[in-house]
Design brief:
disordered N terminus, 7 helices, globular, alpha+beta
Length: 207
């Protein structure tokens, strides 16, 4: 029994390692971060792949023998190891891969993203204001790679509770704290919307 248990654990560890190495440059990882009322508000007004909730997104990038995630998070655009990125959530992460006809865009999208390292995080969540939130970085990276033509879609953003004309209290408090008006109706993007894009193929879940 002890030998069987050991073999099972070794097989499981090997499977997990193989699962991580199947990630390719340009893959998108979608997370349900459970970061409190703001994440709840984001997820309440966006619908992800098969109805799942997502509040963060990053792009896979291999350097030497390490898997990194390029993400706009914290204070700026940054590189995080997959291990560190995975600690954002206890829930499985959705893996999205560019469909075959779009894989040619990946190298330029990665190059663009790496050049944005250190660009401030977009606390205002307003498109094209010299800073980046997570999905905005991915949007611009693939638009750049696509010769300046939009690749993903922008939609009017809403900060109101579904079925009402009332803003989420969390957003009201947030924008009051940063001294900005709520950018209701302005164009933007979000992880949930990107997870449903017809440009990507969903591969499954990464624990």
């Amino acid at each position: 029994m002890r030998q069987f248990t050991l073999l099972f654990l070794l097989s499981f560890t090997s499977l997990f390692a193989q699962q991580k190495t199947t990630l390719k440059d340009g893959d998108l990882l979608f997370q349900d971060m459970d970061c409190g009322p703001l994440c709840d508000a984001i997820e309440a007004v966006t619908e992800g792949y098969k109805g799942k909730d997502f509040s963060h997104i990053g792009m896979v990038y291999h350097r030497n023998d390490t898997i990194y995630i390029i993400e706009a998070a914290g204070n700026a655009v940054r590189l995080s190891t997959l291990e560190k990125f995975s600690k954002n959530t206890k829930k499985p992460m959705l893996i999205g891969r560019m469909k075959k006809q779009y894989t040619k865009l990946i190298p330029q999208a990665i190059d663009f993203s790496l050049k944005q390292l250190g660009v401030p995080y977009d606390d205002e969540y307003v498109y094209d204001n010299g800073s980046y939130y997570c999905s905005e970085l991915i949007y611009d990276a693939f638009m750049f790679a696509n010769g300046g033509k939009p690749f993903f879609q922008l939609f009017p953003m809403t900060y109101k509770q579904p079925g009402t004309n009332e803003f989420f209290p969390a957003w009201m408090d947030y924008y009051k704290a940063i001294g900005k008006e709520i950018p209701e109706g302005k164009p933007g993007c979000n992880p949930g919307g990107m997870s449903t894009s017809d440009k990507i193929e969903v591969l499954g879940w990464l624990e």
